[in-house]
Write a structure and sequence with these properties.
The chain has about 150 residues and is mainly alpha-helical. The protein is about 90% helix and about 0% strand.
Length: about 150
């Protein structure tokens, strides 16, 4: 049976005619026990409340820990995705640069071939001009030689 401070305060003792209890002593003792039980009851209530608050805090911290862990994992995943995307982008940029370089080299080869062809055409034209000019000079020389004879 649970006893409360009020039960202790209201407790009555029977007294006997010779050799009974001194009611003042019993009341003083009961008052002391009642006060002590009141203090213990209050302390017990405070400790239960503190335990409840601590349990709530622990649950909150646990929840935050789970959220933090999930956030860290999400950040790691995003970081890995960003690294992968950056690697893909870098590979794409390099591929495009290589393709452009190949096009530039191909264009340069075409221009080189065109210039080579133009040089050949110019040499041929020069040779034809020289031959035509020489033939003209020879013709004029023969004409001059015929006129002198």
């Amino acid at each position: 049976m649970k006893i409360t401070p009020l039960d202790i305060q209201q407790q009555q003792f029977k007294t006997k005619f010779f050799g009974g209890l001194d009611p003042d002593d019993v009341d003083a003792f009961l008052q002391t026990v009642s006060q002590e039980m009141e203090d213990l009851s209050r302390e017990n209530t405070e400790l239960k409340e503190q335990t409840r608050r601590n349990a709530d805090s622990m649950a909150e911290f646990s929840s935050r820990e789970v959220q933090l862990r999930d956030t860290i994992l999400a950040a790691q995943k995003i970081t890995e995705e960003m690294k992968g995307n950056a690697q893909k982008e870098a590979t794409l940029i390099i591929s495009e640069a290589e393709l452009r370089a190949e096009r530039i080299l191909a264009d340069a080869d075409i221009k080189l071939a065109q210039l080579g062809s133009q040089i050949q055409d110019l040499r041929r034209e020069k040779l034809q001009f020289e031959m035509a000019f020489k033939a003209l000079l020879d013709t004029h020389y023969k004409m001059l030689s015929l006129n002198e004879e």
